[in-house]
Amino acid sequence: MNSEKIIIIGGGVSGITTALTLQLLGCQTEIYTEKKAENIADKNTHPEFASLFPSASVIPHSVYSNQLEELFQSSQSFFYELRKRSFPGLTLQKHFEVFEFEKDRPEYGDWMMNFNSLEEFHPREIPRRSLSQDVYGWAFDCIFADWPLYFPGLITLYKESGGEINQRKIQKREIPSLPADIIINCSGTGSPDLFDDPVEKQMILKGHLLHKPEASLITNSNDEIISYNYTPKASIYSDSSGNACDVYCYPRKDGWILGGSRESGFLDNNDSETEDSPIENTRAYKIDSLDIPSAVIDLNQEILNTTFGHSLEQSDKLSALMGYRYIRNKENGLRLDHETLDGKTVYHNYGHGGAGVTLSWGCAIHLANKIISLKRSQMQSTLLDRLEEIMFDKKT
Prior knowledge:
single chain, alpha/beta, Rossmann fold, 6-stranded mixed sheet, 7 helices, 24% helix, 28% strand, globular, EC 1.4.3.3, D-amino-acid oxidase
């Protein structure tokens, strides 16, 4: 085990998960973070803090890495183990990815549990706009992290394992004087301000979200919780380049999370975005002072009503959010490497795109494996044993 202090910069899901992993493995860790999720009342003032906005299904969407398969499978298997141990907020969902045009099977189809073509389902089981509409795609089982339960549970476990969280903004000039020889950078969009990044243009996707509170879980005849991404023809909903856009619905215990949009742009020097390909809107609904693409409500309403008999109206008590997914670049956007700076070893863990939650455990275990001399199987066993000890002590 390692008693040397390790500093983690960033208090989002990647920072907390990485720090918790090292803490459970016997390291002394401290998180430095400018923002704590529990202290932010207005999420729209911090669209760059991705951990305020996850849906959060364990699916490798909108992320680019040459290590994706290994990281995802490591993360997914650990999430399943956490669920077996009743970790707060982890559920299993039947997730549908539906298209109104033919679509190639995704690479991650080989990695998901119970992956099946839509041809295996009765037409009435498939989320769709109308039963007469021809649809294509697939469905699979996936872990879902119910965010208001899972993320606070993660933070609580980190603190109970002896971890510290120091709320302060770190400046680049302070890095050499930080009281640790190992620094792990999980600062997301703040990373280019703290460390040199080889990518010149930092890509983001900006996304609209809606929350419908107190909406009931969406289930099928087998009592499976259902979520979906649905992509209509481009003539129905597209960006300015003519690319078809999807809408989605993820049920949580506190209601539904609905979307979406994927407006691409680039970070400027002030961590704000410059627009590249905005959603092509003929209509928008004004909710909480945000212009929400009308399709987010209208298409979801049509799907929810047609398939499940549920209602979604603009007049519902909806709250609107706008957040960033930090893609970084489409060649190898995830940065998971290390460098030596001023005598310190700095490990980078950012650029997760739409898969921050999805890859959180895989990236954390990958970095821990670089720092601590343990076999991967022994590391996972140690993590789970220590986690169970803390959860058991808490119950008793």
